[in-house]
Amino acid sequence: MAASAPLPSDDAQQPRLGLRERKKLKTRVAIREATYRLITDQGYEATTVEQIAAAAEVSPSTVFRYFPTKEDIVLTDEFDPVMEAAIRARPADEPPLESVRAVLRPAVEAILADQPEELLQRSKLMLEIPAVRARMTETMTETSLLLSRAVADRTGRDEGDLEVRVFTASVMAALREVTIYWAEHDQKENLAVLVDRALDSLEGGLSL
Asked: Which residues form the HTH tetR-type domain (predicted)?
């Protein structure tokens, strides 16, 4: 998921990070923030990993240890494990799509409130830079695997079942198209409402 703010849920549901994990998170955030600053100033193509490392006060090897490619710096966030935990915490008898909706809508609203500029820039890069859009598709596949595990456990199915794979792949594809649509329309529409519309389409099909 293209997001880096935590889900607005009870603190007890949030994973507790040790000192080492907190240091890693701090480094990841510093690298990402430096990247966005540089891209804002000079553009995506002109921004190099060496410049990012200098701005974040780390070595280029550290940047690559945390992010294999420059595209990953733009796209990688801390949302996936939190989303998985939040979906697992939903009521056991709740339909999977309702659980996804209940998690995504407040998450998007929280991200828009907490980090609007980063989200705006990220979606713009997804639209304008082919390499970023291609890598987004790859990273969403990884997110889909996490979602599949949560959905499979909640429904008593195997995560490799066709129905589970189709469901999670459909959700991720919907989120991808929402992000691109939002960027194509100059980010003027309410992103949380667009997410709801996309999930409505998955639930009810395409109305004639």
From this structure: 25-85
Q: Token match 């997001």: residue?
A: 3
* Identity of residue 77: D
pTM score, two decimals?
0.79
Question: Which pLDDT score is estimated for 110?
Answer: 84
pLDDT in tens, 137-188: 888 888 888 899 999 988 889 989 999 999 999 999 999 999 999 999 988 8
Query: How many domains is the chain partitioned into structurally?
Result: 1
Q: For residue 13, what pLDDT is reported?
A: 46
Find the CATH number of the domain harbouring 48.
1.10.357.10
Domain residue limits at 3: 1-208
SS (H, E, C) the chain: CCCCCCCCCCHHHCCCCCHHHHHHHHHHHHHHHHHHHHHHHHCCCCCCHHHHHHHHCCCHHHHHHHCCCHHHHHHCCCHHHHHHHHHHCCCCCCCHHHHHHHHHHHHHHHHHHHCHHHHHHHHHHHHHCHHHHHHHHHHHHHHHHHHHHHHHHHHCCCCCCHHHHHHHHHHHHHHHHHHHHHHHCCCCCCHHHHHHHHHHHHHHCCCC
